[in-house]
Amino acid sequence: MATTLTSKHPTSSGRGHRRSNSEAGPPMSMSKEDAARISGRIDEEIRREHARQKEARKREVKVMLLGQADSGKSTLQKQFQLCYASRSLDVERLSWVPIVYANIIKAVRIIFAELEYETTLHIPNEPLASADIQHELASLRVRLLPLLALEATLASELSGGVSITGGRSEAFVRLGWQSLTAPSWAVGTDAKKAEATSRARMTTTLVARTMAETVDDIEALWMHEAVRFYTRQRRIRLDDSASFFLRHIQRIAEPEYSPTNDDILHVRLRTLGVMEHSFPMSMAGRSYNWTLYDVGGARGQRPTWIPYFDDATAIIFLAPLSAFDQYLEEDPKTNRIDDSLQLFGAICANPLLKDAHLVLLLNKMDILREKLDAGTQVRKFITSFGTRPNNFETVSDYFRSHFLQVHRKKDDANRRLYIHFTSMLDIKATQSIIGLVGEAILRKHVADVGLA
Ligand SMILES: Nc1nc2c(ncn2[C@@H]2O[C@H](COP(=O)(O)OP(=O)(O)OP(=O)(O)O)[C@@H](O)[C@H]2O)c(=O)[nH]1
Ligand SMILES: [Mg+2]
Q1: Domain containing residue 227: CATH number
Q2: N- to C-terminal Cα distance for the chain?
Q3: What does the pLDDT average to over 3-27?
Q4: Which label site among 61, 147, 201, 296 has the fewest CB atoms less than 10 Å from its CB?
């Protein structure tokens, strides 16, 4: 898959090719007949170019993945990649290694920070009330300090030396990150880039060595009774995929570690700006060029979406239903489901998108189920849920009807809305949904512009 970014291509309408009369006209010596012949030829060329561009546009399908941060947009893009351009995923595979490391170090940091906070509460009869347990955790912390100390450097190298606002030491993805982290580093003519790449490789090697030396301590921390206790109680809150990586720490810390497809899908890496991914897709023997626009979902990122709206064939909007008990990182007063509903309403009402096909994926259903099974009460966070039964069917139906209501209210164009419940890490189920969604989008595209 060609992974290119970011700047908006002007729609190629062919305007501007035609010579104006005031531009170079026929030479003084040319006869009127010759001039007419040349002018006719130019007109014919322009007409052909228009027709060629019109045909080319029929083969272009532009799909935007929208939704709040951490809703699963980049994960869906990876699933598309797995489905339609899996060889490109193989090429990128090793460049995910340092990002998996970064996810693990972040999880370890959060565990210690949450334990420290719990210690200050002095709650009797809980694991942290025991001096022995505190001592065990303190010595694990000392042994893991060398690994924790590498987080900021690793994040900065992965992000090409740029940090996100707020000074958080967290990796994010921008154009060209693969070449920064690829083991066989792309030698470019750009000396600065080559230097950055070489630095990123050195940091990755150092992190790999430190992780191999501390792997048993990471595992001991994850399995520690205090960590088990506070995780079960949801008082240690980690990124959705952190537990997966910590469970697989022995495999990941091996020297020849190569990320599996599952690992790549689990990675959490923020998107900054708009990333363009293109691949071919065929239907009924015809090949179409798909471009997916994977955007950064945090509030500060949303204005960057707008220039891409006017020629979008379809919007796939992702709303994670498991987020009912979470608040926006960028605005801790706003519940994440409320934010998703508002954002979805704004997308439905946007006049620039009035011709776009609308798909809504209610995502992270696996985590929703886990939370409900663990007894988390929806009404504690969404008061309007009231006394309804706190089970999976009722909760998913409740949220689904809210999204449908927003669509009915906001979509003046009265478009059909395609809705699916998804658990984006389930490869088989997601691939079949991608097939359905892809086909529906192509059918709508063909209905709008005709067969290519
Ligand atoms: N368990 C589970 N995890 C998911 C699901 N969908 C995505 N994730 C995980 O959630 C995290 C966030 O997913 P991303 O795809 O990076 O989110 P995003 O919408 O691209 O976020 P931004 O780039 O910040 O806008 C990743 O660690 C994914 O592996 C899901 O359905 N279930
Ligand atoms: Mg993303």
Answers
A1: 1.10.400.10
A2: 22
A3: 39
A4: 201
